[in-house]
Amino acid sequence: MDIRRLRYFVTVAGERSFTKAAEKLNIAQPPLSRRIQEIEEEVGAQLIERKSRPLRLTPAGRLFYEQALQVLERLDQMSSTMQRFVGNVRPRFVLGLIPSGFHDRLPQVIRRYRMIAPEIDLSLIEMNSMEQVEALKDGRIDAGLGRVRIEDDGIRRELLREEPVLAAFPPGSMLGPPDQPIDLSQISPYPVILYPRGPRPSYADAIVSMFRDYGIHLTRTIEVTELQTALIMVAAGEGACLIPTSARRLAHPEVLFRSIRPQVMSPIVLSHRIGDNSQGLKMLFQTFTTLYQEWGYPTPGFIGQQD
């Protein structure tokens, strides 16, 4: 069923005459009659009572007419919408990220980007680090923010900064003075709550590897999907977990936090396609440069440099 034949049928039904419809469509009457017959053969029902003057639609014809009008109206709307979009299209930059991992500074980054690059349509998509790599390779996103370094020949990873990791303990834990760092060994007696559960590799793997590097065996681990879930379980006394410092404000007020000795850091990694010199990526670099200066962070050496 093609659109041209639908328009033919709607015109015949509206004019209630093959002759008038043919004149309006600027075609000969015999080809117009054949097109209507083809429609009837395709739907398996007579749509027009040809012996009546003026022409009348059969019950099947009235139903078909109503449906055809809706289809043509929707098609016209789609055409108009696309014309408006093409006429007003703006460059688009899509950023993949894990919102729970960057909630502290992320709103400022987004606002500043839109302020310095109002001509670019910035879109955010929630996805983990593994999904970001695939989305970058497929062209579905233009950059990704994550906490796991994933090696891929087509992706360049930029270290934005290293953030200190804190240990979160249940209320009432006997930990000593609040300003006194704790050893990693003081965490291992607790069930260690890891997040996210999958896919791997993830932040959870980085935490497990850190304990192994220091020769500490975790006797019990609990895997959960989200950072917020891990902090709720800590507040409920189910175990301890390690979180980036910026996530501290998500926790219940009674959760106890301690810095760790030796200090443990969590990377913030910006990933993008090798060779990407787009204006959108340059504006993201400029955003981080400006904000890092305001926050007092050292500016990464790669900022402003692209392949």
Automatic annotation (TrEMBL):
The keyword Transmembrane helix does not apply. Residues 1-58 form the HTH lysR-type domain. One of its GO terms (molecular function) is DNA-binding transcription factor activity. Keywords: DNA-binding, Transcription, Transcription regulation. The keyword DNA-binding applies. InterPro entries: LysR_HTH_N (IPR000847), LysR_subst-bd (IPR005119), WH-like_DNA-bd_sf (IPR036388), WH_DNA-bd_sf (IPR036390). GO terms for cellular component: protein-DNA complex. Belongs to the LysR transcriptional regulatory family. This is LysR family transcriptional regulator.
